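Please, structure for the following, as tokens.
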Amino acid sequence: MSSRAGVDYSAWDHIYVSDDEDVTSPYVDTSSLFRMRHRARLEKMAEFQQRGEDLENNLAEGQRLQEEAQRRLKYLEERIKDGEQDEEREAELKKVRDEVKKLKKDEKSFEKLMEEHRREEKKLSWNVDTISKEGFNKSVLNIKPVGKEETQETKVEKHKTFMEKYAKEIKHFGMLGRWDDSLKYLSDNPHLVCEETANCLVVICIDFEIDEKHALMEQVAHQAIVMQFILDLARTLSVDPRGCFRQFFSKIKTADRPYLDAFNRELELLKERVRRCAQTRMEGAMQELVEEERQKRLGPGGLDPVEVYESLPRELQRSFDEKSVQMMQEAMSKLDPEEGKYHLMRCIDSGLWVPDSGEGEDEEED
């Protein structure tokens, strides 16, 4: 190729591109023919490369053997120089010298073959596989990295800290009723777009339901579902929720009926869960109160006087109602001695009956 205006184009004289071939066959599909030629070229290139690697390995192995032979030769020459000369050492010395000479000759042969291989490599035509190489290969995907799963204790502590720090802002967001107001508030406070805010809103809902503020509960529940839908969208897109909450509001304001129905269905489910949770908490609080009152009533022996009273025979109950010792003695006398002793001890342990030191012994004997 000629040069014009001082530009040398000779570097492009030996380019081989299979797609520019005009030699085709009517009996073979053109694309298949090109694939076969490409595969044959790759196999030839691999064979040429393997031959070069074999030459390098053989040269390196010969150099290693030559170094070992040189060390043995030097050792033998020093021993003979020190006066340890005999026929056996002379023969071994001659053998090692011949080996070193042969290895040097082999090294020159391999170097000559390596030089011929390099010259042959330079003469090879460029093709689509060798005409260029990657400068670098790097792909960057803007996705949210998968972090380590948090323990339950860590989640609880994180929720508590977040609630204490942003309680006022979260409650304000929970009271917003218009889409545009919610969008603007989250734009001004993007740190609220997270899982902790959704959890805090649910807790506020439960507190309102326990206080029988049902309208406020339903309002905050609506905002909790808004936050939950934003988080679900972020998980679907594998992005940070702070980067997609605007997309949610754009979608919800122009949403079709199925999407709005799904939103309202999730809202009703959350309200129902809040009501059940509030009921459970109130029942638990009531049980704790009952148990606390029961603990206060326990007698010196650890028995509940109410339970003991209800377990007594009817005549004994009447004696306690009338606060009559005589009626109690008469009721006891009608019982079996062991049964009477059993009821008496339970009355004492529960605090229903507090006898004097002397009377208690007599009563027990009776």
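The two ends are 135 Å apart (CA to CA). The CA atoms of residues 27 and 33 lie 10 Å apart.
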